[in-house]
Amino acid sequence: MAEYIEVMKQKRRMCNYYALCIMGCPLNDIDFCNKNSGEKTNADFPEVERRVMSWAAEHPEPVYPSIAKYLEQFGITIRRDGSLEADFFRANEPMSADIAQKLGIEPKEG
Questions:
Q1: Residue 28 reports pLDDT greater than 60
Q2: Bridge-partner residues for 108, per DSSP?
Q3: Less packed terminus of the chain by CB within 10 Å, N or C?
Q4: How far apart are CA 4 and CA 1, in angstroms?
Q5: What letter would DSSP give residue 107?
Q6: What is the DSSP letter of 86?
Q7: Across residues 59-75, what is the average pLDDT?
Q8: Cβ-count burial 54-84 (b if 16+ within 10 Å, e if not)
Q9: 2 vs 52, 56, 61, CA distance in Å?
Q10: 42: which DSSP letter?
């Protein structure tokens, strides 16, 4: 079985993708996410995991360039020994989707 945290992360992505659960969510026919009932679920958890991870494989998470790579195209370099040292490691992580969208950056391929 996949790691629990990874399954829940992908389930959250899937829930965000299907803003309204009735609009094609692969879990619609399983008694798992009925948010309105408040009842405990008796879902087949291995089946839930299989569907979530299958959806995740078909809908890979977009990967964006790092902020450092983005700034390089403008001639700005973030160095460890510079005044921006505290932000060095964060600047080399992929930027979040919301920041990329505001900057008009498309996700990297693969």
A1: yes
A2: 63
A3: C
A4: 8
A5: P
A6: G
A7: 79
A8: ebbeeeeeeebbebbebeeeeeeebeeeeee
A9: 11, 12, 17
A10: -
| pTM, to two decimals | 0.56
So what's the pLDDT on residue 20? Answer: 65
Q: Tell me the three-class secondary structure of 12-81, residue by residue.
A: HHHHHHCCCCCCCCCCCCCCCCCCCCCCCCCCCHHHHHHHHHHHHHHCCCCECCEHHHHHHCCCCCCCCC
Residue type, 21: C
- What are the residue boundaries of the structural domains of the chain, listed by start? 4-58, 67-103
Count of residues making up the chain: 110
| Residue 106: both structure tokens together | 């498309």
Give me the torsion for CA of 29, 19, 62, 66, rounded to 10°. Answer: -140
Place of tokens 């989707």: 97
Query: In which band, very low, low, confident or very high, does the pLDDT at 40 lie, cut at 50, 70 and 90?
Result: low
- Residue 85, CA distances (Å) to 40, 63, 68 in order: 49, 24, 12
Copy the structure tokens of residue 66.
């790092």
